[in-house]
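quick q for whoever's on today - can somebody do inverse folding on this one?? i tried earlier but teh output was garbage lol. tokens:
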């Protein structure tokens, strides 16, 4: 597909992508848009121009400050909108009135794309779980007995999920100093990132009715980049016996554009071999992972960025389909707009680890940055940026970035 709209060759937002987001241009009126090249296609304006039919209905849907009601229309409708957008963008000549529907992306401010009612974080990278186990349990098994049998997860805090660019304030909490038996109250000294991707639930389920593994994809609307900021020293003291709490709930950052699953179809791949074989309710067929390249950069205040990690979404041991199936097997219901994050995505080599905890091996191996400084964990003023993209046969589908600066 070729568009009449000039699109840079290396753009994340090709006509094959068309991710959805919420933006405003300083007029105080947030609305839905689609990223295309260096522009945003204003969906409310497009509806008023008659691109989708039912002008009043779609204008009302796209004039809202979240995508929840649009997503809730269901995949037959959202896929239809996507096809009409692609057809409009790939006409031989520029359509009349096209300029009135387009906004330069650099003049727009992005907002949270969905209203997140519930947030779940999984722990689905076997490399990450093994690395953490080696550090936290050096005298025991790296993987706990249940890990290969089920997608481990926990319910996080939806209220502190923020859009890319929002500063992250260094959290305070109880920390147990090394060699001590009594905790102190202190700012975290081991602030970390976690390289993740989250999926957006696109369909409500009924309480008491599990989502089966062969139906799970019907409930996944799209993906976005996710940084689950973590205070490792607070987490280490609090996580036994119930798991993460203050070490996690102070902030998570998301990228502004939701890439629909239809755009990711060409990039399906098989996941790692699962041994032992999952229980019957978790057995999946076909390719359920995705080949999504990921990178993480650290930029100190008033300095240059250093890429500290390169990983890939395909490394996840437990797929999104298995995560959602397990999440609901007990009858738990899910809602449109819920976010479910992958957990840290680490690869098989040290340069593909998805957290500073692993990259610096719990602070014992400092990371050297381009400006000559080193890091074991994040310092105030550091900006952490995660990027992601797929590329195959000349087709590029990207996620943009999720970025956050650490403030004291």
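ok took a stab at it. sequence:
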């Amino acid at each position: 597909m070729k568009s009449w709209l000039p699109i840079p060759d290396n753009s994340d937002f090709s006509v094959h992508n068309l991710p959805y987001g919420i933006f405003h241009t300083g007029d105080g009126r947030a609305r839905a848009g689609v990223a295309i090249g260096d522009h945003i296609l204003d969906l409310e304006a497009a509806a008023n121009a008659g691109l989708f039919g039912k002008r009043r209905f779609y204008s009302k849907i796209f004039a809202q400050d979240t995508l929840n009601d649009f997503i809730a229309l269901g995949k037959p409708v959202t896929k239809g909108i996507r096809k009409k957008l692609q057809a409009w963008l790939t006409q031989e000549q520029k359509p009349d009135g096209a300029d009135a529907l387009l906004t330069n992306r650099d003049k727009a401010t992005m907002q949270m794309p969905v209203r997140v009612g519930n947030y779940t974080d999984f722990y689905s990278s076997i490399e990450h779980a093994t690395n953490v186990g080696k550090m936290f349990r050096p005298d025991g098994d790296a993987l706990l007995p249940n890990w290969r049998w089920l997608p481990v997860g926990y319910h996080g805090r939806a209220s502190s999920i923020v859009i890319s660019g929002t500063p992250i304030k260094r959290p305070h909490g109880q920390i147990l100093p090394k060699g001590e038996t009594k905790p102190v109250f202190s700012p975290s000294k081991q602030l970390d990132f976690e390289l993740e991707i989250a999926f957006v639930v696109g369909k409500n389920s009924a309480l008491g009715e599990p989502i089966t593994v062969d139906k799970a994809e019907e409930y996944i609307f799209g993906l976005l980049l996710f940084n689950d900021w973590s205070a490792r020293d607070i987490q280490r003291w609090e996580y036994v016996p119930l798991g993460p709490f203050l070490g996690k709930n102070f902030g998570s950052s998301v990228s502004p554009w939701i890439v629909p699953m239809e755009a990711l179809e060409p990039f399906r791949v098989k996941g790692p071999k699962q041994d032992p074989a999952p229980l019957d309710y978790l057995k999946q067929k076909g390719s359920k992972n995705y080949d999504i390249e990921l990178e993480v950069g650290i930029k100190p205040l008033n300095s240059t960025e250093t890429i500290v990690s390169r990983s890939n979404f395909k490394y996840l041991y437990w797929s999104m389909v298995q995560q959602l199936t397990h999440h609901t097997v007990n009858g738990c219901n899910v809602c449109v707009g819920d976010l479910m994050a992958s957990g840290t995505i680490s690869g098989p080599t040290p340069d593909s680890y998805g957290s500073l905890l692993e990259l610096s091996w719990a602070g014992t191996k400092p990371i050297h940055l381009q400006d000559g400084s080193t890091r074991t964990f994040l310092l105030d003023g550091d900006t952490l940026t995660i990027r992601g993209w797929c590329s195959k046969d000349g087709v590029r589908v990207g996620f943009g970035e999720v970025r956050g600066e650490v403030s004291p």
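fwiw Residues 119-407 form a domain with the Fumarylacetoacetate hydrolase; domain 2 fold (CATH 3.90.850.10). also The chain has a mean pLDDT of 97. so keep that in mind when u check it
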